[in-house]
């Protein structure tokens, strides 16, 4: 069992989630149960799946959860783009979050490769 809190990628994903919560506070009220809910769920799914996967004793299970986290990172990335295009977030905030998501995705790919048995 790994301590997920020691993973830099988890720390960055947690920071992304905190940022998404802050950004989405300013979305229109009618989006509370739509885009706000969806982007928050997608963002916290990234660190949540890393945490859940780290609790398994099997590297295969850990890798499986890392793949799910990567999918959630892609979903969050799109929802941020949509939020920007709907003018719910400013371009500068989008760019900061996009850079962080890109970094997280690269780190997840690397961690997946390193965590596979025999690096296969």
Short description:
With about 120 residues, this protein is mainly α.
Count of DSSP helices?
Answer: 4
Question: What is the CATH superfamily?
Answer: 23S rRNA-intervening sequence
**What is the CATH architecture assignment?**
Up-down Bundle
Main sheet makeup: none
**How many domain modules?**
1
* Oligomer category: single chain
Percent range for helical residues? over 70%
Secondary-structure class: mainly alpha
Instruction: Tell me, briefly, the overall form.
Output: elongated
Radius of gyration: 15 Å
Strand percentage: under 5%
Mean pLDDT: 95
By DSSP, the count of extended strands is 0
**Any low-confidence stretches, pLDDT <50, length ≥5?**
none
| CATH class term | Mainly Alpha
Q: What series of H and E elements makes up the topology?
A: HHHH
Termini, distance in Å?
21 Å
Output the CATH topology.
Answer: de novo design (two linked rop proteins)
How would you describe this protein?
The chain is mainly α and 120 residues long. It has one domain (4-115): 23S rRNA-intervening sequence (de novo design (two linked rop proteins), Up-down Bundle), CATH 1.20.1440.60. Helix content is 74%, strand content 0%. It has helices spanning 8-24, 35-54, 59-85, 91-115. Helix 1 (8-24) packs antiparallel against helix 2 (35-54) and helix 3 packs antiparallel against helix 4. The longest helix is centred in the middle third of the chain and has 27 residues, at 59-85. The radius of gyration is 15 Å and the shape is elongated. It starts with 7 loop residues before the first helix and ends in a 5-residue tail after the last helix. The model has no long low-confidence stretch (mean pLDDT 95).
